[in-house]
Amino acid sequence: MLVVSNTSPIMNLAVLGLLDLLRQQFREVIVPDAVIEELRLDTDFPGTENIRRAISEGWLHEEKVENQQVVLALRRELDNGEAEAIALALQLKANLILMDERDGRSLAKSMGLTPIGVLGILIRAKQDGKVGSVGEILNRLRSEAGFYISNDLMQNILLEIGE
Question: Do 112 and 126 fall within a single domain?
C-alpha cells in the first residue's frame, strides 16, 4: 500500500512514542521535502529521535515532488507541507494520504485522495490489538502534543470502539 504523509500525523505519533504504528499499518510511509523540513530533524524536540530512527530504518523516507505547479496552486489554500504531501500523493497515485488538518483533508478528498489522520490510525491500531486504551492516548495527544480534539468527537470515537 502506497502512503504519503503530511507532518502532523508523524510528529504527533512520534511525540507519544507511537510512530511505529505507521510502520505496522503501512510498512512504508513517504514524505515530501517540505514535510522533512517541518519535522525539524536537527532539533531535540520531543519525538524527533523517533523520526530520525524511522528514517534510518528506511520505512519512512523522502521523495521529491516533480510538479511544482501543483504545489504552487495548492499553496493558495494550504501550508507548504500539506501542499507538497497532496502533490506527492497525486504523483505517486498513493492509496492513502496521512493528514489531520480539515482544509487539507477536504482538498485531498476533492482531488480523489483518501485521507486518514491520527484518529483513524489509532482506531485501526485498537481494532488490530496494537494499542490498549485509545482514550488514554487521546488524552496524551491533547496534553503532550497539543493536539486538538473536541470532547464530542472524542466521545464518539470512544463509543465507536467500545471504550
Answer: no
